[in-house]
Design a protein that fits this description.
This protein is an alpha/beta fold. Helix content is about 35%, strand content about 15%. It has a single domain (about 10-230), classed as Alpha-Beta Barrel (TIM Barrel). It has an eight-stranded parallel β-sheet with strand order 1-8-7-6-5-4-3-2. The longest helix has 22 residues, at about 210-230. Its EC number is 5.1.3.1.
């Protein structure tokens, strides 16, 4: 384990799992060593796909009572779903700054509802879009693909955002999501990401536990190296 307050957390995305077996698939990922579940919520407006909403999340919570749930809200009106997701048992509510006219208001409402705040950036959005709100957030998510579809190719040039955030906010939780697997985890770790969302690479693996453990070793090694250099 890394010798600092910063911890590696692996949160598989269930987007590419068999959603008809959502509970079993989710439990399998947790049993394989996942630290949390990353639940992709899409409304068909902010992104062209539709996945599932708070009723499904609430049903999943009745089956999995103790895992950390993060909902990645790829929705046009994030303020609309705060109370329903809190009621569904969500622990962290991650929404896109691109959809928001009043980011501090949504952050405050999320916290009042008892959830942690995550702020997400699409690939085309500069890191300066979240800079003024970082003190109101628990985590920043740097998308490494365009949101809306699973299985896309990792955008390596997004690592500049991750590196800038880690340099300026050494204790901040920084998450990466999109195309992250064994071939791209080193780039994420070296840039400074400590929260890793991985979908296809974990769910499609013959041994998901081995993939998660390998990624964890690489990220924790980078965290330790970073701490030694500070």
């Amino acid at each position: 384990m890394a010798k600092s307050g910063l911890m590696c957390k692996i949160g598989p995305s269930v987007l590419n799992a068999n959603l008809a077996e959502l509970h079993n698939e989710s439990q399998r990922l947790l049993d394989s060593g996942a630290d949390y579940l990353h639940l992709d919520v899409m409304d068909g407006h902010f992104v062209p796909n539709i996945t599932f909403g708070h009723p499904v999340v609430k049903c999943l919570r009745t089956k999995i009572t103790d895992a950390f749930f993060e909902t990645h809200m790829m929705v046009t009106k994030p303020e609309q779903w705060i109370e329903p997701m809190a009621d569904a048992g969500v622990d962290q509510y991650t929404f896109h700054v691109e959809t928001c006219n009043d980011v501090p208001f949504v952050c405050r409402k999320v916290k009042e509802a008892g959830m942690k705040v995550g702020l997400a950036l699409k690939p085309g959005t500069g890191v300066e879009a979240v800079q003024q709100y970082i003190d109101q957030a628990d985590m920043i998510l740097v998308m490494t693909v365009e949101p809306g579809f699973g299985g896309q190719k990792f955008m390596r040039d997004m690592m500049g955002k991750v590196h800038w955030l880690r340099q300026n906010y050494p204790d901040l939780d920084i998450e990466v999501d999109g195309g992250v697997g064994l071939s791209t985890i080193e780039a994420c770790a070296e840039a400074g990401a400590n929260m890793i969302v991985s979908g296809t690479a974990v769910i499609g693996a013959e041994d998901p536990g081995k993939v998660i453990a390998t990624m964890r070793d690489i990220v924790e090694g980078s965290i330790q190296k970073c701490q030694l250099e500070r």
